[in-house]
Amino acid sequence: MAREDYAAQVALLVRILPYVAKEKIFALKGGTAINLFYRDLPRLSVDIDLTYLPLKDRAESLVEINDAMDRIAAAIEGGITGAKAQRIAGGGGGATRLVTRRRS
Asked: Most exposed of 47, 56, 92, 94 (fewest Cβ within 10 Å)?
């Protein structure tokens, strides 16, 4: 990946984080969380890993996760010019991932 492409992906990731943070049911985890909040940004991965926080039954949890992911996708597309957020399948068979791209 070219340095400019990587920098553009990191810039988009940082712009997306405030939309994700509005969803209080999720906590940021993984490499991005460590690099943004505990280190001096030595590098950034280009994904955002989330953990669902409430302790609820599976069916209710899946509905909440789905609704929150839809809200995040809509907020990104409405708030970042040229951004397109697409839900895709992840583990467990549901559309648990959100891929975001931005036209330059």
From this structure: 92
What separation in angstroms does the CA of 13 have from each of 2, 7, 54, 62, 92?
Answer: 17, 10, 25, 24, 25
With CA atoms as reference, report the closest residue to 52 among 66, 35, 32, 73.
Answer: 66
Terminus-to-terminus CA distance in the chain, angstroms? Answer: 17
Strand, coil or helix: what is 102? strand
Q: Does the reported pTM lie above 0.90?
A: no
Q: What is the pLDDT of residues 60-90, one digit of tens each?
A: 998 999 999 999 999 999 999 999 999 998 7
